[in-house]
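Dear colleagues,

As part of the handover before I leave the project, I'm documenting each prediction I ran so the next person doesn't have to rerun anything. This entry is a single chain, and its sequence is reproduced below.
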Amino acid sequence: MFFSKFFKKDQHHFLAQAEKHLAAERYADARGDFLEALSLCPTDAVEDARSIREGLSLAGNRLGELNLTEGEHSLNAGDPEKAFDHFTLARELADDPKLKERADRGLKRVVEPEQVPQAPEPAAGGHGGGSCASCKDAGSHGGTVEEVPSDLSDEDRFFLLVQPLPGELADRYAELGTEFARAYLLIHDGKDAEALPLLQEMLLSCENDIVIYELALIMYRSGRLNECEEFLNRSLLSNPVNSMSYLALVHLTAEAQRFPEALAILARMMELGIMADQAQFMLGELHEAAGDQAAALEAWSQALNLPSVARPAAERLIPLLTEQGRTDEAKYLAKRYLKGCC
């Protein structure tokens, strides 16, 4: 009984840990420990509760500021979906009303852009995309490398970078451990050559679809397209419902103008219910790229029934309908889905 009580962790333990993390600028870890301390704090420990709430506010505000910075970078880089995720996180994490206002302004810029976008952006985060332009967009590291404040610890950098990932991916990425986090940060910094052996070493001990997927992206960026495709297929063998690998495979085959294969992959995604809304929209993109305008129009017409892609589908349909002289239908879509902004 005595030893059980002696080793029990109370609010003082987590408060001390949180303060250490805060001093080391490990804000994500600090926030987690402050929350744990708050949950264990007795109602009569008023002073402890005050210290915990102050620390929680400080850590949340710092994380909010970092997400605001990342949201701006994402918006400027042409990735409104990732910007939306960062601005949303900033609003949730920050305690300062001014930071929340900045987040709201950022969200408004995403939701009400000055110009109508030409295509839907990826579903949450940089992994996976709605455009068939290239496999580069299928990964968090393709194209522009985002800036992350240099004074941030590696733990917080990794936390910040994986948070916008869709579904349970942020947790799955975090569960892969410190070596994977190190490789992920190297990739994010444009150091594929240094990350490659780390991922290969991990794969020797465990067949993991995420590790394989990240290797596939490295192969793509180095121009080794056959190996990229092999890794993507291997990733799907390891996890048949990995949405990132499916999307990257669609991009890769479409880029090679292997449209029947790309269409078959999309059909499989819809059959399994894997990002079915994005797949329906991409079906229209593929048909258009293959020169089948009628099929593209049909695919995007069906996408109008899916709220998450209805607006971009309408944006694609309006010029097609206008070209065909179906101006009344085009005006109806503009009024219903675009709120008269085009």
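The chain is about 70% helix and 0% strand. Residues 1-8, 114-148 have pLDDT under 50 and may be disordered.

All the best with the project,
I.
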